[in-house]
Every structure is written in structure tokens, then in C-alpha cells.
Amino acid sequence: MKEDFEFPNKIPVFPLSNFIIFPNTNVPLNIFEPRYIQMIDDCMKGNRLIGIVQPKKTGDLKKPNLYDVGCVGKITSFNETDDGRYLIVINGICRYKIIEELINDKLYRECKINFDNYTNDLNKVKQEEIKFSNFKSIFNEIKILFKKQGYLINWKDLEKQNLDQIINTLSMASPFSLEEKQILLEANTLSERNKKLEEILKIYSVDNFENKTLQ
Known about the structure:
The protein has six helices and eight strands. It is an alpha+beta fold. It has two domains: 10-122, LON domain-like (Archaeosine Trna-guanine Transglycosylase, Chain: A, domain 4, Roll); 132-206.
């Protein structure tokens, strides 16, 4: 358990379509919109925590509805460019569920959240038993899908990671729909995520790896 992590009851949220992060993954972000510049400024003065979450296809264009589950990340690297953009790196910590959106006078959105369903994200001691041999067929199908969709990935470097890191990295980087990525994000355990990943790939495989969405 990460002893130094204090569960916040509210966080600023950064809605990113077709983009998810998992605990113990690092992602770079290029920040340029005024509302998110303000968000980063405020975060850097505090706990540096941001809630990455996917927007739904419903609601107002400028303020779409949000999925209930996202992942909190901490800003671990910050650089400002000459033209005023922020280049940051976020490290995923723990998934959360949105309870309600809060009314504020800021340019960005904030939500009340809880971590009740995902506290195991912080537990590094207990590792799930998934053998790479059980994942090999899925891994090969993902390679075919990525090649078909024109996605480039360093497979040799990826194979050096732990299996949980491989599954989470491929879930994040995959050319899946936002609905499919949300299914993978909300899978409570690594075993469940592996199973959902297999189900999604079967749908693509049946259609010769063309785009089909698992609902």
C-alpha cells in the first residue's frame, strides 16, 4: 500500500476522449487550452493530482457527460515551453468513481469522488496469478490488430515488462473505441481485464480486425 497517498474527496477532472490511464503507468500530456493551463497551475500549488476520465458522447458539446470511473494521476514532471504550453508527465495512482460534479467558478471541472471499489490498485504486494503462456494467443492477436490499424509499438521493450504492465499498456494504447477502453478500465481485477480484452479481440478477429465496438 502506498502509505503516503491521501485519498482526496474531490479532484479536478481532465476529460480525454479515447484515452485512459491505469495505476503505475506514466503518460505524457501536452497542455495548451486555457482551462487546463489554469487546472495545472492550481494542481501544482497543491497535491498535483488530476482525475483522467473519458467523456461520453452525450451532453453539451463543450461540457459532455462523463463516465463514472476514471483514474487519478499525479504530475511527476512539469516543463513550460516558450509558447506557454505545459509539457507534463502523469503517473497513474488509483481508479475512482465519480459521485457528483461540483459547481465552481473555475474554467475546469471538479468532481466529488470515492475510491471504495479500487483500493486494491494501491496494493503492490498481492500480485494476480496470470501466466504469460495464457496471454500469448491474445498477445499475437493484438500484434495483428495493431499492424492492421497502422499502430507502431516497440514489442521487444514491451515484452520486458511485467504481465500486468503489458496488459494495461496495451489496453491504453489499443485502437479500441472509447466504450471498449472504458470496459477495460472498469474491469476490477487484472484477470477480469484480461478476459474483457480477449472478448474484444474476438469481435475484431471475426470481422478480420476491422473496427467493431463491444457494447
